[in-house]
Amino acid sequence: MEPPRSVLVVKKPFTKSTDKALLEIVNWLHESHPNINIIVEPEVAKKFENELPYVFISQGHGDEYTRIVDFVITIGGDGTILHVSSLFNQCVPPVISFSMGTLGFLLPFHLQHYKSALEDIIKGNVSLLLRMRLSCSMWNTEGKRITKDDIEIGNLQSMNEVNLHRGRYPHLTAIECFVDGQFLTDAVADGLIIATPTGSTAYSLSAGGPIIHPSVQSLIVTPICPRSLSFRPILLPPDVKIQLMVSLISM
Question: For 39-89, how does the pLDDT look when each residue is reduced to its tens digit (9 = 90+)?
């Protein structure tokens, strides 16, 4: 196994404690492993241009990050990890997360242990926990992709969940749910959540969904305040195609 050649370091913004932690970790990495290229986001590079003159700046997202980044360090909370997930259109490289936020469902490492944790990663003495993401596309009633400013919205990647919600509409919404083209149910509710095991501890949990271990590959369909008391969360295989359609009676 070849040692990593580049690392992307991402911090929680607007926080002095994460500023200090980033400077400490990046300076240690540069001194201890000068062969590793350290990449930061443009706003971080601009803020610390005097303290960190040796870092690289990536102006792109998606395919460029996938091509050049070997692993990612996050400094913050769960929201920082979700931000990192949004940077990659395809596979996300290994992520090591140091807890400095308010929520820590996804954060197994404490900041004071960053040296030993990073040494293990660089030497390859680690095990990986794979987490699935959802790929979401949006279509109108004519079978065409929804556009924004006359530009088609492509597939979106979600680490936690996708939800179809009534928004500001004051009444319950009727949503037709299909799985692999087969009709599953007609839900009358505030909305429906499609969650990953990672997202099972987020919005889905607040709506009454179960907690699923990340290694259990599955999808959770959780209703949001359903009218029917018999509509409970449903667990589905991870490779199914789920279609949610707003029923004509809601339009």
Answer: 999 999 999 999 999 999 876 666 777 888 999 999 998 889 999 998 888
For residue 78, indicate whether it is catalytic: yes
**Does residue 128 belong to any structural domain of this protein?**
no
Domain range enclosing 29: 6-123
pTM value? 0.87
* Same-domain status, 20 and 92: yes
Confidence label for 103 from pLDDT (cuts 50, 70 and 90): low
Q: Pick the last residue of a domain from 101, 123, 145.
A: 123
Q: CB neighbours of 67 closer than 8 A, spacing ≥ 6? A: none
Residue whose structure tokens are 């919404």: 173
- The active-site residue, picked from 19, 78, 149, 190, is 78
Q: Domain containing 224 — which CATH number?
A: 2.60.200.30
